[in-house]
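=== RUN LOG ===
request id: a7f3
mode: sequence -> structure
chains: 1
length: 153
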Amino acid sequence: MVKDKSLEGMDDLISDFNRFYILTLLYKGPIHGYSIIIQFKCRIGKEISPSLVYPFLQQLEEKGYVKHTAELVEDKKRKNFELTKTGKECCTTLFKRFTELVSTAIESSIYACDHCNCKIYESAYRETIDCIEMTFCCIHCAQSYKQSKTINM
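=== RESULT ===
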């Protein structure tokens, strides 16, 4: 595999799913560490240790991928972290790489609508037309397909 120069330094930081998910939260916009912990639990259903979150944020900041701003909340200083331009570019590249992996993994489960050619992962509508079982994204595409077939005949 060819090493992507834009990810130099980021690859060694992203060693597991937890860190990858933290990056997705940062990609959405500024966020503070405690919010990362809460969102992780709500969305993934798993506890994540502050001893993973905060050192990871610090590593990202040291590498120039993240910056923080401080705000005072109830007499406590809270750091809001956000990706730098370089951090966003690296995440975009990393997410594209991940998308390719996921696409390969689920490719055999994806169908294309025989009418509009959109990709269907679940709940395809199937109908037999002229003794051929066809796959559609919805009943409306099946009807449109049949109408266009009679018009073209």
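=== NOTES ===
The longest strand covers residues 66-73.
Residues 85-106 form the longest helix (22 residues).
=== END ===
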